[in-house]
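Give me the fold.
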Amino acid sequence: MKTKQLWGRVLVLALYLLLPKCVAATEISGILTSSFYRYKPTSQVFTNIRPFQFSSEGNGIYIRVDPSPQDEGVAYFDYRFDGTNSFSSTQFAVKRERDSLVPRKHPVNDATVVAKPQPYPSPNDNLIIPVWLAFGSSSYFSTLSERYVPSFHFLPPPDLVKRAAMLRFRADWSLSTNAPFLLEWMVDYFAGYVIDGKARRVLPPYYSTGVTNSVFAVTQWTNIDGLSIPRTFSFHEFVPDDNGALKLINLAVGIVTNAASSASVSPSGPVLTDATRIIDYRYLEEVRQHLYGSVPDYVTTNHRFWSVEEIARDAMRRRNLSATDRKGSVSRLGFHYPTLVFGLLIASLPICLVAKLMLARKKQKTNRENL
């Protein structure tokens, strides 16, 4: 049985790699219904409906999710993979600086883009992940050499939330045997390891219970121009309660309304607005000595990403300004702040001593009267 399963996986991978690139050109649109479940203090369900769009061409992927009425101030969320890097962005609907009559020293960002050197979305992209699993994940899953996947949603323990990007969970999945060999289902479990630099650390026992984290499944298939694609799909996210029982916290259900074997949107790099905040994880090693391990975070106003050299120069400029502030913290009256504070403390000592002496005398007087 194991030999047959192994040969089946090899066949699927071979067919995927031999598939002509023209088949990969696809555009799909539909509706994503997301439900969030709250159990304390009372059980409640919050549901939002958002249109989505998926495009692929070659190795590139583009996903867009439009806002629900509850997503105030947001124009849309999108995700792009260019074959090497992932770009997750939030485009804001309200241009606050342009509407403001007060001039600002620094521009207010119209959008936020997070760039990462990875072929999959991050847990923050909770609206993108169900669509990516349904239509854009097969290339990633087909190349995995072990049955572990990244964290596709945040888990409650705070120390795991901080390390979400470094977590890998044990998982099972299956790819369709029909072109274009998309993901049929996937289950990941609360057991795995943490990537620590070039090493990996197994999760401690209390984080390795083996319970189910999330479940993705295609619930109905359809055919478009000879391609087998999901018609409906679902993504369940769970967390264990205090007794270890699983509770559903998020449910996303997708329904495809239109599909075509051509792409009108090119899955290239993200659209940068007049003032886009960039959080860039692609050059951490190159700028580590300048940022002391921090992630490059800046606002670009010329519709392009900064180079490594520009990031390094900005880090040095900020560090020099900070050093100048620490050394030359001088008030408008010409006083050096540390000296001024020290002088005030010394000057206040006599007042404190006099107040303490007066309180002691008053207490003695009160004691005599009580006698």
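The CA atoms of residues 171 and 188 lie 4 Å apart.
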